Each structure stands twice: as C-alpha cells, then as structure tokens.
Amino acid sequence: MAATPLQEDVTLLPETIARTLGLDAYGFAGQILAALIGAFIVGNVMLAMTGVAGPWAKRKITAAFTDRIAVNRVGPFGLLIIVADAVRLLSKELIVPENVDRPAWDLAPLVVAGSALLGFAVIPMGNGIHLADPEVGLAYVFATASLASVGLVMAGYASNNKYSLLGGLRAVAQNVAYEIPLVVTGVSVVIFAGSLRMGEIVAVQRETLVVLAGVPIPSWFAIVNPFAFVLFVVANLAEVGRNPFDTPEAPTEIVAGYQTEYSSVYFVLFYLGEFVHIFLGGAIIATLFLGGPAGPVLPGFVWFVIKIWAVFLFTQWARSAMPRVRIDQLMEIGWKGLLVLSFANLVLTAIIVGVIA
Amino acid sequence: MSSKDTPTTDASTTTRDARMGEGLDDRFNSKLREAFGSSPFILTKFDKFMNWVRGSSMFMLQFGIACCSIEMMHTYAVKHDLDRFGAGVPRASPRQADVIIVPGTIVSKFAPRMKRVYDQMPEPKFVIGMGSCTISGGPFQEGYNVVKGAEEVIPVDIHVPGTGAVLRTRPGRGRRTARRGDRRGDPRDAVQLG
Amino acid sequence: MSADPDRTAGADAGATETLPVTEGVEADRLAELLGDLVRRRDEHLNADAAFEVHPDDVQETLFTLRDEAGFDHCSCVTAQEYDDRFESIYHLKKYDDPTQEVSVVVPTDKADPRSESAEPVYRTADWHEREAYDLVGIEYDDHPDLRRILLPETWQGHPLSKDYDQDRPQVVTLQEHANPLEEDHKDSESDTMFLNIGPHHPATHGVLHLKTTLDGEQVADVDPDIGYLHRCEEQMCQQGTYRHQIMPYPDRWDYISAGLLNEWAYARAAEDLADIEVPDYAQVIRTMSAELCRIASHMLAVGTFALDVYGDFTAIFMYAIREREKAQKVLEDLTGQRMMFNYFRLGGVVWDIPEPRDEFFERARDFLDGLPQATQEFHDLLTTNEIFQLRCVDTGILPPETAKSYGATGPVARGSGIDVDLRRDDPYGYYDELDWDVITQDGCDNYARVLVRLREVEESAKIIEQCLDLLEDWPEDDREIQANVPRTLKPDPDTETYRAVEAAKGELGIYIRSDGTDTPARFKIRSPCFSNLQTLSEMAEGEYIADLVAALGSLDIVLGEVDR
Ligand code: SF4
C-alpha cells in the first residue's frame, strides 16, 4: 500500500511550539523545552478530559442508563461537582496502612496514572497536535499501556490486604491474557498500513474506499476490517478493566480490588489513571480503526475528541448493561476465544494483503 | 436505660474523647488555621469554600446493617436519586468514603466491627445515624444484645429519627452534615417521622 | 370456609390432603410406629401428634419418623425452659404435605440439660441446635460443632434461660478470626488463604460474615458466621402483649418490604392460639397486600442479585428498585407506611381500603398493568443475557435432597424442583379461592432461583388482580375488617402452636406457648433465611469466589431474619 508517507506536511507539536516561541535558537535545550511544553499541553488536555469524565460525565451517562438525573445541584448541570470532588478528595486524609510495602505502595498510583498519559505522546490528534511520531509508535503505545498492569500488581501486592492482592493478581492475569489479542489485532492493522508509525496509519485511512451515493466512505480500518475492529474493542474493554471484564475491581466480590487500601491523593491518581486509560484505549481505537482525527467539516482535533468520547460512552454503556464474567471464564474467553480469533484475523489479513499487493 | 449493660461503653467514651477533645470538635481546624491564629478573613472564606466542597460532594460508604439500609438504598436509587446532591457514589471501601450512614440496629457482635470500619475511614469523616435504632436502640432498646445507639460506639454528627420512613429527610440533611453551621433551608429537610 | 387458620378446630374444606379427622388416626398410627420410644403424648394445636421422648432416643425417633413415616422436613427446633425442665421441640413436616405435622418434644433435666443431637438425621438441626444452645443453654450430645451462633463467643450466660441477668455487663472485643482449616499454610499440594468476607462487605447484603478459605480463586471452605444483627426479636415478642405490642416487630424480621407477610405469620399463629376467626373481607385485603409485599421483596431480590453479578449499581438494579417503588407506593396508600407497615391486627386488618376507593384501585391496577412490561424487561436484560446465563446456569448447585435435608423452603426449594408452597399446601387467607400456580424450576442452580422469583412476581400479580376484583365488588354492608377480639388476649395456659405462612423467602413459622398471661411464654421464630443460608457451603465449596457471591445473592437472605 501507500509506501510514501502522506503526512510529510504535518509538523509535530514541539516543532510548532519551538518555532512560534523562537526556541529553535537554543538548539537541543530549546527542543527539550519545547517538547516539555507540548507534553504539558497535551497532558493537561487529557487530564482535563478525565476530570470532566470522572466525576461528572460518568455519573451523567450512568444516570441516563438507569433512569436517574444525577448531579444537578452544584452549578449548571452539576458541573461544579468536578471542582468539589477534586478538592474534597485531595483534602482528605491520606491513610498509610500499617505494613504496606512503602516505595511500591507509593509508586503504584503514579505508575498507573503516568503510564496511560505516556501513551498519548505518539497519538496524532489532528490540527498538528502530535508530540512525537517514532517508527515504533504502535509498539510504544501498547508498551506504555501495559505498564499499568505493573502498577496494579504493585498496588495489590504492597497494600497488605488480601482483597488487594486478589485484585492485583486478577489484574495481571487479565492484562496478560488480553494484551496479546490486542497487540495481535493491532498488528493486522499494521499489515494493512505497512507501518508502525501512528501518523502513517492515520494517513492511510484518509484514502477513499468507495463512494456510496455520492458520499465518499473513507478506508477506515473499522470499515475495511470490521472483524478486527470488534475484536479490538472487546479486548480493549478487558484491557481497561470495564464490564463485563471488570474483575480486578469487582466491587461485590473483592471490595475494590487493588485500590481497596488507597485513599485521598493516591485514590485520585488511581481514579484518574483508570479514566486516562479508557481514553487512551479510545485514542488507540480512534487512531487504528476510526481514521484518527479525520472527519468532515469540524477540525480534526474535535473529531478526535468525539471519537474518544464515543469509545468512552461505549465502555460506560457496557458497564451499565452487562454482567461481569467470572475470572476463569474471562481467562477462557481470552485465551481460547480472542487469542485464536485474533490470530485467525492476522493470518487472514496477511493473506489478503499478500494477494492484493 | 442505663448503658451499663452495653459492652462497648468504655471504648466509646475513649473514642469520643480522642476524637473531639474536651467537648470540642476540632475536625475542621486546619493546620493553616493553627498557624494563622483566630479566623482571619481568608481562612473564613476558605472555610466556607471547604464546607461547600464537602457538602456538595460526598462518597458514601456502601454500608448496610438493618431495615434502614433498604430505605437507604432507595435514596441512592431511581426515585430519590441521592446523586443529585453529588453523593451518589457508594464506595465499598471505607478508605474512600466520606460519610458513613449507620442504617440500623447495632448489636454487641457488630459494634466493634463498626468501630473498626469507622476507624478505617480517612478524615474528615461524617456519621449520619439513620433511624431510631442508631439513636437509642429504637424498638429493640430493651434487648439483651442491642447497643443503645450508635453514639455508644462512634461519634454521630446527625441523627435522623424515625423508624424506616426516614428516607425523605436524608438528602438535604446529609449535605448539612458537612456544612455544619450553614443552615440554608432545604425543603427536603422536613423530618418525616416513621 | 377458606379463612380458618385454626385447622384443628373443624373440618377445613380447603385442605386437599388430610382432614383433621384422619389426623387423629395418623397420630395413633405414628404412636404405634414409634412404640416404646414415646413416653407421653402431648397435644399441640398444630400437630395432634406431639410425642415426648427420652433425650437419648432423639435420633432413633427422628430416623423412624423420617424414614418410615416420611417426615422429611425438620422445619424448626424450639428450645425453652420451664420451671422444672428444659425442652427442645422438633417440628417435623412433610414436604409433600405440610399439613401433616409432628412435634417431637424432648424434655431434659434442669440441672444438666443434655439431649441427643438431631444433626445426623436432619442437617438443618445443626444451626437450630446451636441457636438453642446459645440462647437457652441446652447441650446436644453428638453435635458436630456446638458453639455459640448468634451471640459473641465471649458472651456469659444464655439470655433466654430463666436465670439470665440482663444487666450484667458483657465484654465483647474485636477478635481476629482464625483460619478454620489451618493457619495460612503452604505445602507442596496446596496453599490456602483465609479471607474474611464481611461483616461489612458489599456482597453480603447486610452484616453477614463469611469465613472463607480460598485456594487460589476457588473456595475451599466457607463458614457463615451470623449474629451481627441479632436484635433479640424473640425476647421483644415475649415481652409484648398479644393484642398490640407484638405486631410491629414482625415488620423488622424480613425487612425487605415483606413486612405484611411476616405480620401474617404472627397473626396466623396468634389467631390459632386464641381461636379467632378472620372475616373474609379482611382475608382478601390481607392476601392482596401480602402479595404486593412479595412483589416488592422479589424485586429487590432480583435487583440485588443483579448487583452481585453485574458488580455495580447498574440498570437492572435501578429498574428493580423502580418497580419496587411502585409497589411500595400502593402499599403506602393502603397502610400509611413504606416499610414498617404494622397493618395487620389479630382478627383482621387495621383499616379498610383508603377512600376514595376508586382511586386506590386505579392506582393498584396501574401498577399491575405496567408489571408485565417490567418483567419482560427483566427477561430481556437479565435472564436471556448470554453472559448472565454463563454466570448463573450450573453454578451454585443445590440438589433437591440436600435442600430438603437443610430445610430449605421458598424460592430456594422451588428452584431445586421441590414443589412446595404453603399458600397452596396449607391454605390460609384467601389463596385457595383464587386461581394461581406454584412455580418450580428443575435447574437447582442460581439461574433457576432467579427465574422462580421472576415468575412468582407474575403469579402474585395474578393474585392481586383477582383480589382487586373481589374487593371492588364486595357488598358495602359486608366490609368487616376485623373480627371481634377481646381487648386483652389471654389464651389458655400451656397451649402451644406452631404455624407457618409462605413468606417471601419461604416457610416463616411462629411457635407460641402461652402461660395464661397476656404475653407469650415462649415466642420462637422459624426463619426461612436461617435454614436457607445453611445451604451456602454446600453450594459454594469448590466454586469460585464470584460464584460464592452469586450463590449467596440467589439465596436472597435478609440478615434481620437470619439473626432475628
Ligand atoms: S430504626 Fe426502625 S427501620 Fe431503622 S433499623 Fe431500627 S428498626 Fe429498622
């Protein structure tokens, strides 16, 4: 397929910043500064989104599914709940239980929240908001996303609580089981796109597949290969630990899983981390399957955000409507179902691409 | 009814004292205030803000004891929707909860455990005693096994009287718990006795 | 003659199987069967056959009764203290025909109250005897594990015995629980982990404590530890007067809005004791309101089960609560209360349908009209959901034989294919005049139990529908809501009765012994949840934690009723 990158014209965000602020002149140090500023902006945008999603949107969405209204007393549409929730949670006492394994216990929330944020570095978000575009973009995203499971194990193990331990163990088992189908399905996209580079994957999807009744249908991989799309979305649900795969938290079984012992700031970090993770999952799905920032009329970044939120909405929907599977069934679905299917998909894709090319 | 026959009297007194000092509830005194001395303007505003924060957003502990907890569930659920007030996220782990609603009769076997759950919550924490049982033991006051009110075990901020039909009081009241002095009227505050 | 709770008083046309006449014959036949084991014949209002046996002959007697006479249901064990002796009474029934009842009375020595345990015969006796030991102080030889069940281990004295001093301080401390199998141990074959689930845990529906031993994710051993809500209900009832003071308490046994069903249990027993005839009109109101309670209760059961399986306050839970709210609204119109109804009185109900009647009927019918759609929604979202089936079908298996031996009743028994429903088998109220079915499912698993509840809601709706029709057309001058009951009730001394109704969770029975005063000398509650909960370890051992939680949810226990 497209061997020549279509995205030569796109400049990365740090470069833009460097140029506008005139940091170019400072050589390497300037580049680093520009990169930091860019990362700061992107990170904050993402955190702002999770800030809206966590305390407010999640409640509103769940409420809509369950015939309720949810927050409406504090500020317009209850939006001030975001402020209230954040300040209140941060102002709570941070309890450090006895016998926790100190450095690990403290690092775990950081790892969980940080790892997800790292992933956004290589996601092209449209309008030139793209921090870096390394050759191994996709591999990098998967790598950072799965760092979170390390954090979860740390949290579960260090908490000195049996429920946490169970939650941590479940989290690893689950992440390992679903990471593989996730990556393998991702690879099938790479075969189509011919590159691991995120920018290129997006660029490839910009081509028109067919024109139906005058409307050009882009060659988004969700349309080209819906099977892989479904697989990926399902595996992603497990990856971010949402129903029906929310076994690591499983409130009615193991209290709150790995985060049982965390309060205050650390809890906020976990909470945020979870949502950043969902958004990262959404961003990966958007990039790999939904054409990234592509879309008519509206600017690219808006489309990108819309797509992430669509995925977020989907996870919340699944959460409201689907029972949780049991841990052994989860493993079974992962190893016997998704893994096999994803390999089948990979082989098929390889054959198809091989025949076409 | 004397509280002599309740097993936990001693423990409760120490808890209360330890929590409140001599007749003084200092849970709202921040380090800042200690440093600045008696309430300067900024801190008053800040206090107001914090009260608003704590009043507008609360995580409840998912904690059911007896009959009252059924009505408590109803407050979370569709019709009454406690979440409107920003308090509709029941957390299963006490570490993440702000408010513990004690919904029911406390008996000797449970009292120490309830104390423990309370101790596991991070400050600032609030306790709402729901129903007559948490006030005095309610209909079961004369029982050999019943603790005569939650106050014997943990300090209670708000008592909601009635047995069973207390539900309509609670949303507004819960908010008020956190606001303390701020008694802005809320129609839902009308107490309905059961 | 439908409304006669006092079955021994006369011929009961509603009873299909045994007529009181044959009951006498039956008793003689049983006495013959038992032969020398019977030391004395007694008379209980519910059971013609009340045999007094020697403390050492308990097992033999019960084995004979179970194996040769078919009394396969030990519904309750009542322990009590007289001035000169202790007594344990085993209330036996048949699952096929609960109207056939036998009481086996075991008097024991005052100084050394010991008798043989019935546990080898009926597994359910395990907990019942532990309770008897705990509260009254009778010791059972041969019992596998005789320790306190409701009160803390450190409790001094037995509160329902005569010499108990309530004002004596008790010390209860927080104890860490020990691993019932062994210390967390590690060897080459297995390493287990001990886990306390509860008493404060989101899945325990209240304050139940499960001492669980895990082998990985699997449950190696589970031991329910109850008593965290033991509110001395029996003591409270023994202090209250028959006429007014007891009635508020039943509301608080099974508080999941099954209040009226509980009240009926007491009403039935007390009316039997004092020989009160309830007017038909009141019976219809009772039947209707009780079924509304059943709907409310089952809705919550389904909702919380969904909560256990789904893991969060999700749509199903909320929809269930929504339907419950509607039922509660109708009940509130009728009784003035949402939960603690206190609506029944001995001999009837406290007041008539609220004026304007039409409005009430309309509202009730509105609720019923919406119900089919709601249950359909549950079937769509829940029972036909693949993941739900994956979770529930073939998990938490409870074979009928085990269920019987544990004395399981209600939806739990019916979900195991045991066709038992006191409303039909031992009719009371207006049930035998109405057209409805008993729901059973053969699945024996969690799924079957949920299905039974959902179907029962539909049946209850049918019953209410018919009651509404009856009430609407009832002649105005015949609306008698209460029989004439004396201001102070003093049943004859030493009358004993055990009467049960089909509450939301199963057979809710009340044993009352009167001593000639206006308060009961012994008031014993047979709670269905108490017996049902015992089956948990059978269902959960060897399964995953998630299934343990689901099984617990499908038992639909209420701690208020388990602990009383
Ligand atoms: S106050 Fe009433 S409703 Fe509440 S727990 Fe006590 S008895 Fe039950």
Order the strands across the largest sheet of chain A as they lie in space.
Answer: 1-2
Number of DSSP E strands of chain A: 2
- Poorly predicted regions of chain A: 1-8
Major beta sheet summary of chain C: 5 strands, mixed
Structural class of chain A: mainly alpha
The pair of chains with the biggest contact is: B-C, 49 and 55 residues
**What count of helical segments of chain C does DSSP give?**
17
The CATH topology of the largest domain in chain C is Cytochrome-c3 Hydrogenase, chain B
- In total, how many beta strands of chain C? 15
Largest sheet data of chain A: 2 strands, antiparallel
CATH superfamily of the largest domain in chain C: Cytochrome-c3 Hydrogenase, chain B
Report the C-alpha radius of gyration of chain A, rounded. 21 Å
Helix content of chain A: 55-70%
Structural class category of chain C: alpha+beta
**Which spans of chain C have pLDDT < 50 for at least 5 consecutive residues?**
1-23, 179-184
Ligands bound, unique: iron/sulfur cluster
Number of domains of chain A: 1
Structurally, the number of domains of chain C stands at: 2
Tags for this entry?
heterotrimer; B: 194 residues; alpha/beta; Rossmann fold; 2 domains; 3-stranded parallel β-sheet; globular; disordered N terminus; C: 564 residues; alpha+beta; Beta Polymerase, domain 2; Cytochrome-c3 Hydrogenase, chain B; 5-stranded mixed β-sheet; 15 strands; binds iron/sulfur cluster
Give an account of the 3D structure.
The complex is a heterotrimer of chains A (357), B (194) and C (564). With 357 residues, chain A is mainly α. Chain A has one domain (7-356). Chain A is built from 13 helices and two strands. Chain A has a two-stranded antiparallel sheet with strand order 1-2. Chain B is an alpha/beta fold and 194 residues long. In chain B, the strands form two sheets. Chain B has a three-stranded parallel β-sheet with strand order 3-4-5. In chain B, α5 (111-120) links the parallel β3 and β4. The longest helix of chain B is centred in the N-terminal third of the chain and has 16 residues, at 41-56. The model of chain B is unreliable at 1-13 and 164-194 (pLDDT under 50). Chain C is 39% helix and 16% strand. Chain C has a five-stranded mixed β-sheet. The longest helix of chain C has 31 residues, at 280-310. The interface between A and C is medium-sized, with 30 and 31 residues. Bound molecules: iron/sulfur cluster. Iron/sulfur cluster binds at residues 66-68, 104-105, 131-133, 138-139, 163-164 of chain B. Residues 66-68, 104-105, 131-133, 138-139, 163-164 of chain B line the site of iron/sulfur cluster.
